[in-house]
Design brief:
Blueprint: E1 3-7, E2 10-12, E3 18-25, E4 34-39, E5 46-51, E6 57-59, E7 67-72, E8 77-82, E9 91-101, E10 104-109, E11 113-117
Parallel strand pairs: 2-11
Antiparallel strand pairs: 1-3, 3-8, 4-5, 4-9, 5-6, 7-8, 9-10, 9-11
Length: 119
């Protein structure tokens, strides 16, 4: 069973920084991509950043140049360094991974961590 636990959210002023962490338990961390998503009320969850098992990264256009995703396979942890934060970055941030099953691909999600950017 895969479990994801996010941490590092909070309240920060515009222009500030936060670092989110997602600790993963269960097998297969290094063999699978990890992603960070975010969601605001009444909107769909959106992909913020993703890192493949080989370290290839992709970002949403809205965060390119400000956010950096990284992974530590020795610690089964993925990070999201967020710099130059803007009020529109305010959201609940979720960690995600997937695992193959006999019935297809299964998504795993953390409980989410709130990020609020406000003066």
């Amino acid at each position: 069973q895969v479990q994801l636990v996010e941490s590092g959210g909070g309240l920060v002023q515009p222009g500030g920084s936060l670092r989110l962490s997602c600790a993963t338990s269960g097998s297969g961390f290094s063999d699978n991509a990890m992603g960070w998503y975010r969601q605001v009320p009444e909107k769909q969850r959106e992909l913020v950043a993703r890192v493949s098992s080989r370290g290839t990264v992709t970002y949403a256009d809205s965060v390119k140049g400000r956010f950096t995703i990284s992974r530590d396979n020795a610690k089964n942890t993925v990070f999201l360094q967020m710099n130059s934060l803007k009020p529109e970055d305010t959201a609940v941030y979720y960690c995600n991974t997937q695992r193959p099953t006999a019935w297809g691909i299964r998504d795993y999600w953390g409980q989410g961590t709130q990020v609020t950017v406000s003066s």
